[in-house]
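Input:
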Amino acid sequence: MRVIKKKLGRWERGPLKKSLSKLSERKARFETDSGIELKRLYTPLDSARKDDYLRRVGFPGEPPFTRGVQPTMYRGRLWTMRQYAGFATAEETNRRYRYLLEHGQTGLSVAFDLPTQIGYDSDHPLAQGEVGKVGVAVSTLRDAETLFKGIPLGKVSTSMTINATAPILLAMYAAVAEGQGVKTNVLQGTVQNDILKEYVARGTYIYPPKESMRLVTDVFAFCRKTMPRFNPISISGYHIREAGATAVQEVAFTLANGIAYVEAARRAGLDMDDFASRLSFFFNAHSNFLEEIAKFRAARRLWARIMCDRFKAKRPESCMLRFHAQTAGCTLTAQQPDNNVVRVAYQALAAVLGGAQSLHTNSRDEALALPTEESVRIALRTQQIIAYESGVADTIDPLAGSYSVEALTDEIEAKASAYLAKIDKMGGAVAAIEAGYMQAEIAESAYRHQLQVQNREKVVVGVNEFQAEEQPPRLLRIRADVERRQRKALAAFRRSRRAGRAKTALSRVNRAASREDNVVFAISDAVKCGATLGEISDALREVFGEHKER
Amino acid sequence: MMKEPLARKIVRGDVQAAARLMRDLDDGVLSAAGALRELHARSGHAHVIGITGPPGSGKSTLAGALVDVARKKGLSVGVVAVDPTSPISGGAVLGDRIRMQRHAADKAVFIRSLATRGSVGGLSRAVFDTVTVMDAMGKDIVFIETAGIGQEGVKVAGAAHTLLAVCAPGMGDDIQALKAGVLEIADIFVANKRDREGSDELVRDLRSALGPKKSPEGWERPVIKTDALTGKGVGELAELIARHKKFLSKTRAWQKRSKSMAESAFMELLECGIRERVGEKLAKEKPWVRLLEDLGNRRTDPRSAARRALGKMFK
Amino acid sequence: MKIRVLIAKPGLDGHDRGAKVVARALRDAGMEVIYTGIRQTPEQIASAAVQEGVDFVGLSCLSGAHNHLFPKVARLLQEKGAGDVVVFAGGIIPASDVPRLKKAGIREIFPPGASTDSIADWVSRTAERLKARKKAA
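Output:
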């Protein structure tokens, strides 16, 4: 080490100095968005003191899981290629799902429209203009059945991006599976069910935080009992990052929320080693290639420490951070959309080199609209090319040992830990959220980023540099009559059901909510009795009230 | 009979007219004076309630919750929410409205956000006038919610019949966070976020700091626990506020307060006006400019310079 | 005279990064900005705009519901006698929707990637022009 240090000094005083005197570097300081400096050169000296391969890097499938959560990683099985999709009605979405599965997608990911996410039926006044726009409209069990028609739920795993109404959609999913003759205990998939990040960054909450946490743990217990192979939560950093957080904040706030969920589940009487192995995560795959790879590794190591040391989990599976990644939507540009294909490729590569279990790649036109069939196919091909042509999936955690990546991994872990300590002091994630702390940090980073882009400190190709004249691209248009069709379908549904049965079931939901009972079982009955999503949500609104923004 | 058309509209409850007058008053437009005079003659009925306290204590949320209670009682309400102007840009983000937006479509609620606009002491110069307009519109209650900084706790006391001091546990220096003076003059003390750790200690500290002393008018100053988010304790707080109003009316303190509110506003505006005029003189008139030069060259000291200036103004 | 702007998010879309960044940028440009938060109905927005006596209303929507919601806000402002309030917008708004929105009373639409400087400049210049017009009238 001493020799390296001496020679490094000699290099800096010799060839480096000479080179700098002829050509200075582009910037005085190179930084990631998190404020971490990217040094000119990383050498063994950067991991010298901390170099303890066995303790800090280790082997895949073993704590601290820095190199990955499975011993064979992609050599055993590639990540799941899971493209988020959904729009208009269940019929149209079902068609898109079948297209994607035909073209090699290996898992489903359901995007719901905002009324469905916020507990409004498609004919609710507040749903006007929103039905089927950002995802598929699902108001009834019939809609759910149409959504999965012809798709064997026993064989395909499904991720549902649904939070406040997760209990309802989960119940519908299970009911549809039962209808297909599939036993619920073989069902695989995920419900996002991460309500804390809704208050921080996404906004599709319904009820206040305390009551919402209760629903989250009810879903944990319901899954444990009826769908043990289903992930009852996807603790998300993606949206936090999209809202403007840095990579460090993304890790810190996500894990802080994770800690809050673990504590809530324990308070609800669940056995930690029972539910902890089913916790899953969802991260952003952003642009700074090296920082992102380091970020995923740091997150795994940090979570392993939290579960093993802080929560004293007994099984190693309880300490594993399994995650889905999505390439960063906020980096997509409306200008020169084909450039986005390249952006997504690098971001996806970072996610793979970071060891993601499943991946969604954005389509090039998503800064402007939902993707066309052609665009989404390119996005899927991006993953397939990485998997089959690039070779990176053929060895595990290939960037381990890179001086820069290990140094960045260490630094992200350290900075995120500092944030976690601060949040602990505030009383935990829920307290930090209620105090607006996370939101303020994120808004600050977002503003700083905006200024940097406007000052050209940060170059965004095609937007503030390298612009071009262009023709608007062909975009997906949602049929204008989606809302009208949904309204008609709802009216027909309400006529066809036995109103008395639905009403009784709803009052049972209301009662379960007012007591300490697991609401999801009552919701499951209600769904089968023909209660709509809006009606069930309203029954809960009566008991829990609605959250007011602060 | 009102001469000013704007004033007539406002008295009939025209929100647009009221908003326009408020804007003119905030901007110091001279033509607003006539309408204001007429409205002022008509005002004096609304119960003006000031809400002060450190940032993060939950003032806006509490104001929103008090509006809920008032509306349930069928009262019409005005809210003046003050936020600080950035000394650097001169702009402001007025964010209190977020916590009260559920009332936006309620015709009986009028919420107006004001920026301090550089006013010394942290309260906007336009507060008193804005309250007057709301009062003349027929509002039963008008809340003034301060930015939570500087001396505005004391300032808002001069603008309100009833002053609420709001604090919350775990905010560092707890009652020290209640700026100097507020402890002496507030009428009701609200320990918000009552389900948080440290709430009981906060109440204890407040009670011991207040001691057995009553207000100069003889009002026993209560401490009450609330949770503005869920509404717990807010009904009782509203009762206390109503009781304070009754107390003031019974003891004639109401009129005294109303009079001193007008006087405070008068002094406030007078001070601002004098500052402005002096500022203009210092910038342009030779003898004043020379005074500043003398001060800068240490040929005179601040006290003597001020005396000379006053002498010039009040010959 | 300070320019007063209301920034609002109509409809169910909860992505407020852009709205908050614009609000802050307008403040840094010396304006007084009232931010209403998310999940506002057109009625709440128009009502707030009137009460706050604003010169401008900025709407943000990323969910595609703009064609339904934005014209409603413009219409309500007219009905409440605040037709002189200038409405502008941003979010995920395809270029093909812009002409119809402008016809419905949205004065300017800022696409994704628009700089906050350009928005602040536009607001200032528009305010100047309106002031000059009022003086001349």
